[in-house]
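Subject: Interface between my chains keeps coming out wrong

I've been trying for a while to get a sensible model of this assembly. When I model each chain on its own everything looks fine, but I need the whole thing in one frame so I can look at the contacts. Pasting all components below, labels as-is. Any help appreciated, I'm running out of ideas.
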Amino acid sequence: MQLEQLPYTEEQIKQAIEEAWQELLQEADAEDYSLEEYLEHYRKYWNDPDFPNDIPEIIIRAVEKLIGKSLAWYCELVRDPSGFTGEYSFIAVDPQTRKCLTYRQSTFDGVNVHYFLSVSGTVIYYEDIIGLVIKLLNKIQPELVTE
Amino acid sequence: MEREKIIAALETAFAEISGAKYEDEPETFAEFLESFKKFRDPETPVYWIPWTVEEAVEELTGRKFGWHEDAFKDEWNYTGEFGFICVDPETLRCLTAERTDDERCAVSVVFPILSIDDAVQAVEYFLRLVQQA
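Reply #2:
Try treating it as a single job with all components included. I did that and got this:
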């Protein structure tokens, strides 16, 4: 995690995650409980197949709040025959320039439009969410600057 | 571009991807699609379809692109619809990004590909995108 390369403090990132979480609760008209409680519930009953879908939504909203810009996204939960692998694949495009912000050049397979983020298995902690937001920001922020 | 040329590029790409070029009586892409449409066998290597379209586009344009492809499923099986995201590696522009009616931006395009005609239309669409870019 390279927070020092980003123009945000850890507090700002936590704040953005919290706001994203509150938005999701309001939209779902759900009772008020913290993201930590939600994650704890998941760790306890981790066979809930719908759960991992909320994680990228939180990450995307937090990233957009921090960069102050709405992006176009594609996100996929990577699955193998036994289910969710703990890996998320993101594609982000700047709607103004249509630049793909998640590309990576690889000598092996040419241009890859995905950016993969993974947590350790399917057990997700609050710190994992912070880490994923920082990793995604590290990928996207330099691309936005050089546009 | 002529339809025959596009079909030839699709068949060449399919023969490469499916390994049919090493077989004595290879199945053509058109036959593969017909069989997929008829039986919707869940064991079908369905990603051969978008890969074939992508490979044909690259062959016909003489360029490489960054791709993402999705085969859509309903409750039971593959629907025959495929989502594509295409990025030009030189400009990093997402060629499939489009403004939507609600002023948002969609990054993928979706095509039903259940026949060789559908595949030709998909290739023609991408060739137009590349030309416009």
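Reply #3:
Confirming on my end. The helical segments of chain A are 10-27, 35-44, 54-67, 126-145.
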